[in-house]
Fold these 2 entries.
Entry 1:
Amino acid sequence: MHILILGAAGMVGRKLVERLAADGHLGGRTITELTLFDVVEAPPVEGVKSRSLAGDISGPGQVERLVAARPDVIFHLAAVVSGEAEADFEKGYRINLDGTRSLFEAVRRSGDGYHPRVVFTSSVAVFGAPFPEPGIHDEYLCAPLTSYGTQKAIGELLLGDYSRRGVFDGVGIRLPTICVRPGRPNKAASGFFSNIIREPLNGLEAVLPVGEDVRHWHASPRSAVEFLLHAATLDTSLLGPRRSLTMPGISVTVGEQIEALRRVAGADAIRLIRREPDPAIIRMVSSWPERFVADRAESLGFTSERSFEDIIRVYIEDELGGRLGA
Amino acid sequence: MHILILGAAGMVGRKLVERLAADGHLGGRTITELTLFDVVEAPPVEGVKSRSLAGDISGPGQVERLVAARPDVIFHLAAVVSGEAEADFEKGYRINLDGTRSLFEAVRRSGDGYHPRVVFTSSVAVFGAPFPEPGIHDEYLCAPLTSYGTQKAIGELLLGDYSRRGVFDGVGIRLPTICVRPGRPNKAASGFFSNIIREPLNGLEAVLPVGEDVRHWHASPRSAVEFLLHAATLDTSLLGPRRSLTMPGISVTVGEQIEALRRVAGADAIRLIRREPDPAIIRMVSSWPERFVADRAESLGFTSERSFEDIIRVYIEDELGGRLGA
């Protein structure tokens, strides 16, 4: 089985690649080759034959060359992130819309019975306020409030139509905010959700730019990889024509995140969180989704953590070797 | 005021043009020029300076030339219809998606404070079964089951994002099935909804390919024109970021249509309806929307007929000079 991963050098992409290489199989079939594609060359992996290629998904002939090798499964994680797609209108549409569409077109044009599984990572950014109570359910309107969310919602529509027409077998998964992100604080507006946990766990100070009553939807990087693997192996006859699913997660307030951190790492850890309200971030976050009722995904076997403490423990296990204390 | 109409030679487009020319003004401003664009040259109109151009909306430079004249209002009705978009995948995407996007891009690239009202005709085909009871409401998921519906749903998303970013002031209107369509029976799968009324009113036989229990959502051509005019003049500050609206209409079964015809035109008329079940049409129609709760549009002042008899009377007034009997 040949697997193509677009966006293989990103945080979730790398974890997916490592997991596939460690498993050596997917859905009962042996993995014979991994093709890793991103704007930069993804680091090599051990255990499975792999090939890293760097390029622009929207470049002429690029996805056609990748699809010509007829991968059995295509994980499409490549995207310009929310902040950049908002700041650079043309780049966002070029990568997130045209790049996705040219991938789908490359599969369609290859013809000859080629019918891969395509796993498309969408986002909860396809939803925009106001939201229903008790949470956004599976039949709620996609009404994005960002260009990124618009591009992901369009990707979902294309995925549905190309799947319905038998071009490929598509599954779209709307990822929660991934928490706790490893690495250093980044400029993403949502970065603080991870920063306020990761930095204190590493003995470092973190900035909290919003109030403790801000509620959001989270899953761990480990869950994100599990979502991807399950989407790649799921019996899609159970899906029907609605090919995109909101993934399960945990809805917590920032206050509840901090309390979970205190329970896991003690009062010293939470003293490292410095309140520094940022009106721009407060405004942005106010229109973000707070909670979901992910019934369809759960009934199809997608699972995530059960509490925010579980999410913190995943970080400690996967990134700190299971040990607390910097 | 300069108005551009894309799709000006179609049935609704022609009626819109005639109405604009007859009124001579829109939203209190005098119409100084109409530009009529379609794949064929639209017939000239009296009373207002007008210019008819034929071309392909997706042709290089085409929409740019139309937008360069900086029309104050753009009515975008140009589309490949449902059946053709399903039969010709590439043409459907080229006209309905790329054509719409290049129009929006042409406005964006013109810059310099140009900010027209853009009225985009969408369709109830953005919805796909299963549907909620008692009808499809304003927060229901767009889950199209045709390429046409997919392309219209994508157009709505683009309209929302371009409006949010201040490129133009967009309003999307999802038209019900337009009934009674004037002219001769056509090959559209939905054609019978009009045929079974129009043909008997003209003393001709009509074929009914589905059962009498089939329920559907209708508005007259006159209402369609009213929707377009209202969308062009509406205070969009009332709309918020959700720029597309399901238009009001009448939900009736085919049996109720026939009964309305009997009341308006007598028992002889309904005897001209010949039952000839067509499994392909029966299958297609089974996934079409049956009824809506068009609260938002109604609260914003969009109105339609109150009964199917009203819809029949509009046909008699507008197409038969108010006189029954062929």
Entry 2:
Amino acid sequence: MTAHMSDSERFERLKRFFNNRDRLCKCLGISVIEIGHGTASTHMVIEDKHLNGADVVQGGAIFTLADLAFGAAANSHGTLALGVNMTIAFSKPGLSGELTAHARETAAAGPLSTYVVEVKDEAGETIATFQGTAYRKRDKIDLSAWG
Amino acid sequence: MTAHMSDSERFERLKRFFNNRDRLCKCLGISVIEIGHGTASTHMVIEDKHLNGADVVQGGAIFTLADLAFGAAANSHGTLALGVNMTIAFSKPGLSGELTAHARETAAAGPLSTYVVEVKDEAGETIATFQGTAYRKRDKIDLSAWG
Amino acid sequence: MTAHMSDSERFERLKRFFNNRDRLCKCLGISVIEIGHGTASTHMVIEDKHLNGADVVQGGAIFTLADLAFGAAANSHGTLALGVNMTIAFSKPGLSGELTAHARETAAAGPLSTYVVEVKDEAGETIATFQGTAYRKRDKIDLSAWG
Amino acid sequence: MTAHMSDSERFERLKRFFNNRDRLCKCLGISVIEIGHGTASTHMVIEDKHLNGADVVQGGAIFTLADLAFGAAANSHGTLALGVNMTIAFSKPGLSGELTAHARETAAAGPLSTYVVEVKDEAGETIATFQGTAYRKRDKIDLSAWG
């Protein structure tokens, strides 16, 4: 069935797949809001459960927000991509309100692809910059259950 | 009071601080099990809430496990250290049982310090390799509440 | 004197400083071609001395090209910035002709700033994606000798 | 012929290959001094051509030193490994004398392997910490010319 699916239908199903099946993201209130060709956006609203001992958002929550955007963008081409290496640089603390992450593909050639993700707060200031490399398998992603 | 505290007492209080105040780690069942001079170990038992859409441990959970070991090691010297940059490379999926992370300081000079963290499964195989850089402030960590 | 210098004059002097004083880049034929506010571009023409055992450009040459763009961008604000952490992901081999790198600032707050650098070949395809974090000191860069 | 080669003979030939064929390393005076199972060491003596505008060793030279150790270790198993992602954290400036890098494999499973490299100065202090991920092809490395 997936062979006849439009890109926009595929992106919609992939979004549903992530938002229903990624249990860590569900536990943390992190969700995919948009997927395009080699791009994706995610968001979360800061809650008490995201904080560290210094009462700011724990790096692991920001990493997970960025990583989900990276994962959604890397899998936007319809074949399975696995995250193999990620780097994150923190610029300022996440304090309150909504955080959003936007992933953009910088390269996709052969078995590897690379993405840059910027995480911003409500004021539009960059909280973190993330770079991820994915290993691309030839397997098609089965989205037949997510129509 | 902290001036008269032994190192082992300080490590014990720091562990209590992380395990009580880091709400993301509490939410995810991640805890510090040991702190030494520039070293720390953390662990978690894999649960359904840690999994991604492929039914293996989400990278964000493994990152958080490694990051807590990094953070505990970086703060083991008694002055405040903030994580500024982290890299993680994934080697094999986390499937079930317990994961442990061990952080070791490779350099601490001037305002920056660097750590290597290895995350292993119960079979002792490396799940992920993590490298973190911390920015060291001069502020003492107040552990007076954690005796 | 630097107090009365225009931004464009400062960028020009900074470019002269890098292109005259960075001996590794001179040795490798790498130079800064443009500096702006938080941005910089560098280039090199591939020569035999840049190649590795597989007859493609050695990763260290591409890293140095990206790192110079990062360093020039990080120092574009007039105060000294030191590179503390860099990550590079390689997408395809550099074979021949000219390579260019362009650095863009994603965040500059407090003592740290972060940059994304994309390295491209003559066909405009991405060879490597680089992320760098700099530690910003308060010292002014003395460019009085480079007028 | 390679089928009957002992490991120590293979390590010796691989070292000869790198030290003769990697033209960037030859240009910079960087060489492999030892290769083992998943390990390798490299060294360089600091010269004027390695310096940056601040008269300390340019990050690109230290990266190349670490990257060669990583590359030699990743290729020590006899099949071709390509570096895909590297991270380097700088701890203190390289000023004079000899620098050495030692690479150690932390994981090798499936198509990827990961290495930690520590770069030290003559006093044994860590200059930089490096982490590298390699993509492992099935192709044998032909060392027949390096006996």
